[in-house]
Amino acid sequence: MSHDSDHYVLDVNGVRREVTDSWLGESLLDVLRDRLGLMGTKGACEQGECGSCSVMVDGVLVCSCLVMAASAVDQPIVTIEGIAPVGSPSDVQAAFVEAGAVQCGFCTPGLIMAVHDLLERDVMPSETEIREELAGNVCRCTGYGRIIEAVQRVAVERGRAQ
Hints:
162 residues; Ubiquitin-like (UB roll); 5-stranded mixed β-sheet; globular; DNA polymerase, domain 1; 2 domains
């Protein structure tokens, strides 16, 4: 099977990354994982239904399986690897661990990205708002209670810090 290939540059986690040996219709998910070696973003449904592949593109949370990578040129992309410095988890990541909200871990990167996005827009979301915002993220291991607890912990801690 032959595809037209092209070369372009993506701004991923603040670093300009050259993409080579890719075809123009390739998804951002596939480019992040297969071309750039960023394995934190997970692919599950590949239909935009589960949230496991969530990343930020130009400040907007997107399912990377539905975005053509070449369409993200000149837009800042943040993946789970870029949410905090290596070896220093973000407050959301730490809260997930503390609350026991991480089980198999497959959905965790997408959930963490969604929570960061939520808390940037709403500093003190209600439980209903948290549930609504995370409805696009499927977790098969938890009942979501500990995930919601983790989000609430971060919101309270951030509120105290202000």
